[in-house]
Amino acid sequence: QVQLVESGGGSVQAGxxxxxxxxxxxxxxxxxxxxxxRQGPGKEREFVATIDRSGGSTDYADSVKGRFTISRDNAKNxxxxxxxxxxxxxxxxxxxxxxxxxxxxxxxxxxxxxxxxQGTQVTVSS
Length: 126
What we know:
- The chain is mainly beta.
- It contains no helices and eleven strands.
- Strands 2, 4, 5, 6, 9, 10 and 11 form a seven-stranded mixed beta sheet that branches. Strands 1-3-8-7 form a four-stranded antiparallel beta sheet, with no helix packed on it.
């Protein structure tokens, strides 16, 4: 099992960039697909991006495609979310999550993720 801790959130102006990190504890990190989700003010939590256990396959929400990049470093037990060309509508608490998938693949579905971090705030001003 893994425990997750996000970092890298903050405040930025529209058009700026931030990189979120999610550090995982435990020895089985490479058996997990990893995902990023977000919850904006007054909104439900939504899918942002996901990456398979090897880092060879990714998927993105349409709203962030071409602006955000998910990656992982299994040697460091860390997953990243590079966010470029940020918009005010990207303002949210961002959560990383782990989905045990030793056979590979990924999911956009929140309930398939069984480990969650505490979240990190991202605020984009216009």
